[in-house]
């Protein structure tokens, strides 16, 4: 598929009444937003990521690559688990109560540019929020009839470790179409078909079988990305080791650096903690209940009658890391981390989850 073919693909999705959510360059970052045409994509944009550092470079991605960057701060969960949503709005008229509104209706969506780590994260959310015993109706409604056009990663970021988590860099499921961008000798895409809907779309825009040399080049690009990981994490026995060292001195060391700012949980593609707020107007005639993102790094998050059960930054960071990499496995059967590295990049002080997880209970350190 040529870049012009990608433009036709976007047009087809929009003709079907879908809102196309994909990458756009805005305010010095690659964010998620509405994509109306090929011109909206961040052509020629690349990024630099390291602990506590994120910068975009315009024009440094050779030959005008449309997906020459790694995952930005926005995860695709924002399309399905909204940062804030009104659950119900009530109006009192005398002794009667009228329901004015509830959650907004779910639009018909297509995701463009989703990476393997984000698809793995959506799979975790689907298991918990859609298919679990306590399903979230709003999330489930938004996940219906979503068409996914994934992009295979052509480079690894300085904080990526998806290979360690077995979630990437190749997307193997969760997509209808998956694109691998090739830049030489001509700009084009190798397209993998992942579903009947994807096959129908490929036929509709007139795709033809890729020559073997293109598929070999695509495979080599993804293999090269896997070899370029900026970080690694040994997960063998990790859940058990973290659970056995809850009083390790390393937790105190981390607490001297952690600001408790909640950045890591806000950018994480799998964190789904929320809080409920009830509001009324001054006349006590209109009341509404809203749900918004929350974080286990907030002291109020662990507040119960009489006070908070996690009063220190040490206890809150420990809760986050051990839940993500240890007790999440007991709860949901998988790790709660997909190795995207966002929490490392967007931590203001550059705390590295891979380094901290490796240090707690490590050989030579005394844990309890």
Structure description:
By secondary structure, this protein is an alpha+beta fold. The protein has two domains: 3-83 and 106-227, no CATH class; 238-275 and 294-359, no CATH class. It contains twelve helices and 14 strands. It has helices spanning 3-15, 116-130, 137-143, 162-165, 196-204, 212-227, 238-244, 250-255, 263-267, 313-332, 342-345, 353-359; strands spanning 19-26, 29-34, 45-50, 53-58, 84-93, 96-101, 109-114, 147-151, 177-182, 188-193, 274-280, 286-293, 303-304, 307-308. A six-stranded mixed beta sheet has the order 2-1-7-8-9-10. A hairpin with a 2-residue loop joins strand 5 (84-93) and strand 6. Helix 7 (238-244) crosses helix 10 (313-332). The longest helix has 20 residues, at 313-332. The chain is globular. The chain starts with a helix and ends in a 9-residue tail after the last helix. The relative contact order is 0.15. The model is unreliable at 364-368 (pLDDT under 50).
Layout of helices and strands, plus pairs?
Layout: H1 3-15, E1 19-26, E2 29-34, E3 45-50, E4 53-58, E5 84-93, E6 96-101, E7 109-114, H2 116-130, H3 137-143, E8 147-151, H4 162-165, E9 177-182, E10 188-193, H5 196-204, H6 212-227, H7 238-244, H8 250-255, H9 263-267, E11 274-280, E12 286-293, E13 303-304, E14 307-308, H10 313-332, H11 342-345, H12 353-359
Parallel strand pairs: 1-7, 7-8, 8-9
Antiparallel strand pairs: 1-2, 3-4, 5-6, 5-12, 9-10, 11-12, 13-14
Helix pairs in contact: 7-10
């Amino acid at each position: 598929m040529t870049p012009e073919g990608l433009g036709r693909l976007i047009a087809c999705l929009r003709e079907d009444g879908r809102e196309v959510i994909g990458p756009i360059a805005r305010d010095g970052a690659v964010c998620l937003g509405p994509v109306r045409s090929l011109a909206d994509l961040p052509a020629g944009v690349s990024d630099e990521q390291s602990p506590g550092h994120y910068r975009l470079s315009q024009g440094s991605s050779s030959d005008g690559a449309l997906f020459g960057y790694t995952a930005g701060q926005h995860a695709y969960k924002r399309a399905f688990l909204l940062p804030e949503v009104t659950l119900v709005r009530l109006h009192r008229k005398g002794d009667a109560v009228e329901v004015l509104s509830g959650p907004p209706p779910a639009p018909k969506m297509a995701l463009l540019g989703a990476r393997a780590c984000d698809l793995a994260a959506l799979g975790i959310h689907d298991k918990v929020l859609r298919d679990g015993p306590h399903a979230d109706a709003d999330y489930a409604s938004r996940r219906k009839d979503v068409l996914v056009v994934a992009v295979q990663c052509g480079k690894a970021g300085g904080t990526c470790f998806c290979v360690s988590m077995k979630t990437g860099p190749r997307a193997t499921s969760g997509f209808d179409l998956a694109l691998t961008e090739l830049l030489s000798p001509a700009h084009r895409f190798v397209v993998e078909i992942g579903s009947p809907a994807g096959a129908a779309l490929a036929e509709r825009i007139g795709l033809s079988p890729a020559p073997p040399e293109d598929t070999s080049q695509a495979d080599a690009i993804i293999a090269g990305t896997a070899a370029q990981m900026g970080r690694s994490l040994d997960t063998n026995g990790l859940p058990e080791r973290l659970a056995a060292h809850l009083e390790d001195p390393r937790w105190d060391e981390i607490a001297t650096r952690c600001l408790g700012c909640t950045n890591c949980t806000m950018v994480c593609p799998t964190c789904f903690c929320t809080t409920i707020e009830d509001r009324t107007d001054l006349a006590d005639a209109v009341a509404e209940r809203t749900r918004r993102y929350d974080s286990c790094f907030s002291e109020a998050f662990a507040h119960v009658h009489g006070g908070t059960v996690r009063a220190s930054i040490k206890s809150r960071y420990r809760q986050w890391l051990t839940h993500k990499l240890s007790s999440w496995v007991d709860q949901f059967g998988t790790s709660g981390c997909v190795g995207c590295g966002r929490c490392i990049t967007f931590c203001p002080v550059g705390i590295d989850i891979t380094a901290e997880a490796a240090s707690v209970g490590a050989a030579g350190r005394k844990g309890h």
